[in-house]
Structure formats: C-alpha cells, structure tokens
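Record type: monomer structure entry
Structure origin: computed from sequence
Chain ID: A
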Amino acid sequence: MPQPNRNETESNPPDFFRGGGEMGARMRDYPWQDHPLGPPSNWPQSLKTNIRLILNSGFPMFIWWSDELFSFHNDAYLPALGNKHPQALGLSARVVWAEVWDDLHDIVAGVLHDKKPFTAEALKLILQRKNFAEETYWTFSYSPAFNDAGEVNGIFCACFERTSTILGQRRLKTLKDISDTSTQNQTLKQACQSACDFLNKNADDIPFSLIYLLNGEGTKAHLSGQAGLLHFSVPKEVDLHQQNTLWPLEVVQQTKQAVVVNFPDGIESSVDNAHLPPVKIQAVLPICMPGQEQLLGFFIVGISSWLEYDTDYKGFQELLANQIATTITHVQAREELARQQVYLNEIFEQAPVGITLMRGQDFIIDLANPSICDIWGRKQEEVLGKPVLEALPEIGRQNILQLLRGVLETGEPFVANELPVVLERNGRLEVVYLNFVYHPKRNSYGAITGVIAVAIDINEQVGARREIEQMNKELLAINADLDNFVYSASHDLKAPISNIEGLLKVLVEYLPDDMLELDVVQRLIGLIENSIDRFKKAVADLTEVAKIQREAGEDVKQVDLAEIISEVQLDFESLIIESGARIELDIAPVSSVRFSAKNMRSVIYNLLSNALKYRSPERRLHISISTEVLPEYTLLTVTDNGLGVNPTEKEKMFSMFKRLHDHVEGSGIGLYIVKRIMENAGGKIEVESKLGEGAAFKVYFQK
C-alpha cells in the first residue's frame, strides 16, 4: 500500500482537508496521485463534502467510497481501528475488516443495491485490532453515500462502540444472579455449585470456574463447585503442602493476592463450547472472609481469549470472589445459627434453672423447660400453649400477674430474691422460695411481645442459710468465750511464770558454788531461763492478740499517716543507722484516715520492723514508704529489697506463729496481728514478693 509522503504538488491542500486533527493531516500528506482515486482535485464534490463533514465531527464516522469501498475516517474513529491505524486510510474496507467481512458483506450489499440505510444495536463483532481476536459490540448506521450524479457510490457510517457497556451489563447481571440466590442455599456445597452454575451462563466472561474451600487447618482445599467442560480432570482435593502443577494455591494463600497463570504444558486448555476460543490462561483468586484477611478458599476461573484482561475484567473477577465469599459466609452463619439453635435448645432443656417464654397480654406459655416445670409441679404438656393463669391458677391470688404486666408495660426487667410463692405441687399448696428475673421479650422491631422468666428454686439454700445463721450466732458466742478465755489465760499465766522465775533465782542462790560451776548445771539453768523467756513472750503475744480482738473499734479517730510513720522511724533510728538502710518517703498531700492510732502504729511498726529484720546481706537495704488516695481506700505501701519469699508461700506469712526465715529472732505473730487489725477495721493487706528480690506490702485503709 502507498505510504504517506508529502507531495510537492499538494503544498496547498484542498479546503475540505483542512482541520480534522491527525486524520486531516494524514489525508493532506497522503500521495493520492498514486491512489486509484487519483488527485483530490478530481474527486466528486459529494465525496469532498462528506470528508469535510466527518473530519469536523467529534462523533466516530467513516466513508467507504466507490465499488472498492476505499476508507476515509476521522480521529474519533481511531480507537475502533486499533492497530489497523494508520494503514486503514485509503484501503478497501474488505481488506481492513477482512475478519468480519462475512458478517458485513450482506449488510453492505443491501445498502449499496437497495439504497436503504441499515441500523444495528450492539452488534457483536470479533475484531482483530489488538493482536488478538477481540469480542466487541457496535451500534451503527450504514447510509448510502451519493456521488454528484445522485447515484449510490459508497457508504456513510456513524457508529459507537458499546463493548464496555455490554460487558458491564452482562457482568452486573451475573453478579446479581449470584447475589439473588445466595440466601437460598442451605449448604456450602450447594452454595458453591450454585455460584458456578450461574457463572456458566456467562461463559463469554467465565469459560470455566472452580471453587475450592479450605479445611479447618488450612492445609487442604476441597473442590466444592465446578462449571464449564474442561478437557482435563481436576482434583477433588489439593494438599497445599505438596507441589501442585495446576495452580499456585500456596502462593495465593500466603499473599492473599490473585495470580494469573498459563496452563501447564501437556494439558489441553480449551473448553467444550463451540462458540468460544481455546482458553490459554486462568486466574486464581483468594476467597476471603468479607472485611477480613481470613482465607476461606480459592476461586479459579478461565480468562476468555476474546477479551482483554484489563482492570474491568480483573475487577469483575474480584467482585465475583467477594460475592462468593459473602454467600459462603451467609451459609456458614446460617449453619452456625442452626448449630447454636440446637445447642441452645439442648441448654434450654438441660438448664439447671427454670426458663419460660410467655407471649402477649394473657402471657401464653410458649416454652417451658423441665426445670421450670419441676418448680411449678406440672408437666410440659399441662402448661404449653396455655395462659399462665390457666396453667397456674393459684398465682391469681398473689402478686405475680401484676409483676408480669409491669414488665410488659414498662419494658423494665423485674428481679426478685428469695420471694415466697405459693404453688400447688404434689396435690398440695407449698411455699416455694424463688430467685427470678422477668425480662421483656422484644421482636425484631423492638416492640415488647412477651416476658422471659428465669427462676431458681432456692428452698434448700434458704433452709441452709437459716441453719448457717443460727450456727454463726453460736460460733460468735463461742469465739467471744474463746477470746475471753485467751485474754484471761494470758493474764492468769503471768503469775505462775513469775513464780517459776522467782523459784529458779532462789534455787540458784541456795546451790553450792561448786555445783553451780558444773557445766551440766549451767546448761540446765540456761535452758530453763530460755524456756521462761519464750513462755513469757508467747503469753505477751497471746495477750496482744486478745487485746486487738477485744478493743476492735475503740480509740477510732482521724489519724495522720505521715505523723505515725515519722514517729515509728524515730523508734528504729539506731537500727536504721546501724544497718545503713536508705528510707524513701512518698506521702500523698492528704493521707489521714479514720483509724485507731495505736493500731495504726502497730501496723507500721510491724511492717518497718520486718523490712529491717529481713534485709539481704548482699546489698544495701532500700525501703520505700508511700501513700496513695484511691476511690475507696487510702493505700499505704511499704517496699523493700530484702530477702523476700517464694510467691507460693506468701499467704503463709499472715498465719499465727508462722516464720519463713529462721536466722533472726521473731515470734511469727506480727503480720498476723497486722492482718487482724486491718480486717477488723474493714480494710485489708496484700503482699507481692519474690524470693531474693524483696517484698511490697500494700495496706488498704477503708475511707
């Protein structure tokens, strides 16, 4: 074909070639003197007029002129030509559109011979304009083009490509069909196969489709849906940890991104559909939980060889994968709901508490589990479907109906504890103590339609509580007697101990010197003195414990923690200096509590004494004393870096006469006293400790 080349004789091109953008320039530069139509100056005026018309139009237009149908077109028509541009200018339409001329031949002949226009709406044509056979759709009008003599000498066409619109409508319908049926599927297998069946109705976009769902461990994928007849068999199950030559499922699982792959060598990839070309590539898309990255499975689809795999095509496949994921999620939700319903029914029937659902103003009993029937003393068939007053006529003389109506009218739940209700059970009226809740039952619109009742028969608990209350009274009396005994005994034992101590002194004075000098006598006298000292210390501790219990609640006033801490520090000043301890204070501005002053002093004294006593020889002792004002308590914290204790034994620290370190003197009663003081005052003490790292005692003074 002659190539464009500026001709010197055309340095002043005809007016009808002026403008027209790229095609105007190409027409001006074209060597028409070498073309069968000859120089433009010899062209008929009708051709010139039509060329001027199309060059100055923004709508896609072309003219096929003469029996050879030589092509003239404007810039707006260039996208339709694709890679046929620029060679199409001046070339016969039969050559330009050779791949579809069988479809166009009769139409063109009819326009030329019958002089009647032809109009097509969204006509499908498979064009070779992008290096592959492409599915396209066109709306156009062929009109006869007349020469100066009024004879038909060509075809004038105004056209518009509808490919993107038709593809969009087709794909939207596919998405809608799958969406519309998503709620009708009862099982995952049915949902997946149904989706593939609908996709098969749009084989132009989806030549074949496969859906694989992952197992619970995410290690295997099971074929759950398939459509489109392939020339190879697909596996029913794929192990993702084994090499798979068909699809890179493990890559998609890891990246959650779609992958496009060619068919492996040796596999015939075409589908059994006469009007479709062989499929050469396929896409593997992840099916993820909507709005999440949790992978449900894989969506494998063939890619039509007649379509460009562009953004719209990819987006359509992603929307399909998302819709399939939504359908799967809905089915899973329904299956889970069904499982939960069965589970709830089992719980409802087996619940150890009574449950009933009552409907409407008459409180018709729709549900009643065995436990509520046991409480009522009725069988299920005796109460179901009946108004509560008919099923339990004895409650009409009580306040139960008023309570139910109050919940129905106000929407406020009613809670009762240990309410005595008279019920007819075993043929006689019985008083039954119940804990129960009446809760409004609402429909999906929020309207109250009935009452849910949950009840517990607490007859045994009430009886047991009354027995316990009586026992507690007896125990309180016994404890008081024991406290009095301990208090009296601790005082009464002082006199015998003093007598023993005095007798020992008299004995020592009367023993001969030679006998006193005997080692065995000295050892015995030392043992007796040590025993007397321990006895006196034990009696003193018992006296202190009894005094704390007897004096609980006495001497209570507003006490300044900072002041008591300062006084106790002075008591230990010499020991603090001797041990080299560093004491750090962090006292809140307002640290006063209502407490017994002497008991508070005892608490702080014991905690500081323990911190000094159980210091570590491996490091300098550091003691931190702080206070903090909390909503319900004033917190005193004493922290040290001493020996500490094993966390499993920290509760033993508060037991009477319990010592966890024996290398220093102590009775093991100090922390017990602190605990008793705090509990008697409504407070508490806690400890955090690690062996070899120290301890932190937290004392909570109730406000």
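Annotation 1: Confidence is low (pLDDT under 50) at residues 1-10.
Annotation 2: Residues 311-350 form the longest helix (40 residues).
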